[in-house]
Specification:
Keywords: Signal. The protein is mainly beta. It has helices at about 1-15, 30-45; strands at about 110-120, 125-135, 135-150, 155-175, 175-190, 195-205, 215-220, 225-240, 240-255, 265-279. The protein has a single domain, classed as Lipocalin (Beta Barrel).
Length: about 280
């Protein structure tokens, strides 16, 4: 129940944070004529303040570029958005426990993972993360390198780097799965700015019956100075210490207008594949 409360609260934050008008690429200054052209169009129109269209669709009178970039897959704000946590540790203790006996406490495990994300024609990302799980306490560190097609029509590539480090607390930790609550610090390195702020996250992984598959999900939120919602959900196949992972990732970034008074935002969504080790 605690997990669903956390998830619902985070989704509400995502909706609130994404409600303000936004333009162009996260962390990248607008060209001089961009804001001027927008102001002129608004004055001529006189009917609305913001001409954004739903992600994945374009109105006939909308500008060539939507106010929030997406990967073209038509993701709405109320779609399920997640980002995965480290691979599950519990396969390591599969011995059957006699009736009435206490299950063995899982030993601390180290997880190392690499993951590739596809955002369609927009670009992609490569993620590396490491975690240490104890019975209750642990840590999690991640880096995500994102390469995107330039939003000005040129052949250039915009690069973003996301970093975060968390301490984790596991209120539920058994041989069948683990639920983590996380808190720490995160940074976003954009073309024209670097943002550093507090970060909160929650992750869940659980066995699917007697099969070698786990379901895994993770959500991370950075409320300020920039706004970041990074979520993912998928399945993990365990082959001893090796695990193969796949699912869907959605990432929202908004610089809050800290560069030039105009909010620049991006919304990316697409599948991911990962490979990990637990030892």
């Amino acid at each position: 129940m605690g997990f669903w409360k956390t998830l619902c609260a985070a989704l509400a934050v995502a909706v609130l944070l994404g409600s303000a008008p936004a333009e162009a690429r996260f962390g990248k200054r607008s060209k001089p004529n961009t804001s001027d052209s927008k102001d002129s169009d608004d004055k001529d129109d006189g009917r609305k303040e913001h001409h954004a269209t739903p992600v994945g669709r374009r109105a006939s009178d909308a500008p060539v570029r939507s106010s929030v970039r997406s990967s073209g897959i038509g993701v709405g704000w109320f779609d399920v958005l997640f980002i995965s946590g480290p691979s599950s540790y519990h396969r390591r203790a599969r011995a059957e426990v006699p009736r009435g006996a206490r299950a063995p406490r899982p030993a601390p495990l180290v997880h190392l993972n690499v993951q590739g994300d596809s955002f369609g024609d927009t670009g992609g990302a490569l993620d590396l993360f490491m975690a240490l799980d104890g019975q209750r306490w642990g840590m999690d560190a991640r880096v995500s390198g994102i390469a995107l097609n330039a939003d000005d029509g040129s052949d250039d590539t915009d690069r973003l780097t996301l970093l975060d480090a968390h301490l984790t607390l596991s209120p539920w930790s058994t041989e069948r799965g683990r639920f983590r609550m996380e808190a720490g610090i995160a940074s976003a390195h954009a073309p024209d700015a670097i943002f550093v702020g507090p970060s909160l996250a929650a992750s869940l992984e659980a066995c699917i019956g007697p099969s070698p598959f786990d379901v895994e999900a993770r959500i991370q939120v950075v409320p300020f100075p920039h706004r970041q919602v990074d979520m993912q959900a998928g399945l993990a196949l365990h082959l001893g210490a090796l695990n193969l992972r796949g699912g869907w990732r959605t990432l929202y970034l908004n610089d809050g207008g800290h560069l030039d008074g105009v909010e620049h935002a991006d919304l990316f969504s697409g599948p991911y594949l990962g490979l990990g080790l637990s030892f």
